[in-house]
Predict the structure of Sulfur carrier protein ThiS.
Amino acid sequence: MQIELNGKLHPLPDGATLEQLIAALELTGKAVAVAVNRQVVPAQSWAGRALVDADRVDVVRAIGGG
């Protein structure tokens, strides 16, 4: 299947979850916010949130600075 990840097509195995996507992006344990089809998905729900073909996923990473 293919999703739209931050505006670009991104292939994923069928049935992949948000948790698996975040792990594949090497963002596990990082401060990130995720929305699927413009709906924010809390981190505790990522494991149970299966993605489907053509989902629009936005991942935003918080980066500190100063």
